[in-house]
Design goal:
The protein is α+β, with helices and mostly antiparallel strands. It contains 3 helices and 4 strands, in the order βββαβαα. The protein has helices at residues 54-62, 81-95, 97-100; strands at residues 3-12, 15-24, 33-35, 65-69. A 4-stranded mixed beta sheet has the order 1-2-4-3, with helices on both faces. β3, α1 (54-62) and β4 (65-69) form a beta-alpha-beta unit. The longest helix has 15 residues, at 81-95. The two termini are 23 Å apart.
């Protein structure tokens, strides 16, 4: 399955955050949506890891829209910044289901 990549910048209560979206190139109905949070224990890593990890696999296997947030790492912003960023991405995803063509459930 071919995927296309899109980058979005969203506003959060703490500033702006980049999201990387992977989605199937062909889509006829709303798809499952997956919030994929990269590994690294909130201290290392980056959203682009979605391209060479299970995030891409999930998009291909399930025909899902995968959203990977570029959350703030612990070295630049202390706890609970990363958790707040990930939650902001989840809320944004939920608020934009129609625009993203993902299932609201």
């Amino acid at each position: 399955m071919k995927l296309k990549t899109e980058t979005r910048i969203i506003d959060t209560k703490d500033g702006q955050m980049k999201l990387i979206l992977l989605r199937p190139t062909e889509q006829s109905e709303p798809l499952p949506g997956i919030l994929w949070i990269h590994g690294g224990g909130y201290t290392t890593g980056m959203a682009a890891m979605v391209h060479f990890s299970c995030g891409m696999y999930l998009a291909q296997k399930y025909g899902a829209v995968v959203i990977s947030p570029e959350y703030r790492l612990a070295g630049e912003a202390p706890y609970p910044a990363a958790l707040n960023d990930c939650y902001a991405a989840l809320c944004w995803m939920n608020d934009h289901t129609e625009e993203l063509s993902i299932r609201p459930d």
